[in-house]
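yo, DUF7344 domain-containing protein is done. seq:
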Amino acid sequence: MGIDIPRREQCAIDRWNKLYEVLASQERRMIIYSLRNAPEERRISLPEAAMTPESSWDPETMTTQLQHNHLPQLANAGYIRWERDPFCVQRGPHFAEVEVLFNLIHASIDQFPESLINGCEVYEEMYHDAIQ
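structure:
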């Protein structure tokens, strides 16, 4: 026998679950991070927007991974819209759901434990900017 959860509450739970699932990939986080720093209606080029400082993938492999895995997940959540030609991405209708999380991380990066900062160049850069 299960617990009945009101529809509205279940919808919010589903959105949070989707947020955590989508952000489980460094490439998807990098796309969101890149869009966060771009003007709202701007399209940004792929695969460059998904490349992390630690990426060692060649562009062809990255493009395949993006088209078959990362971009569909982000688009299904409504966080992005993407096109194949030209290969680019822009903010989707639910982008604010991920943007607010990235803004909170950026605003409080100096409070994060070093174990979550060290080794991640993007967060290391934010951390050093915050403490200066």
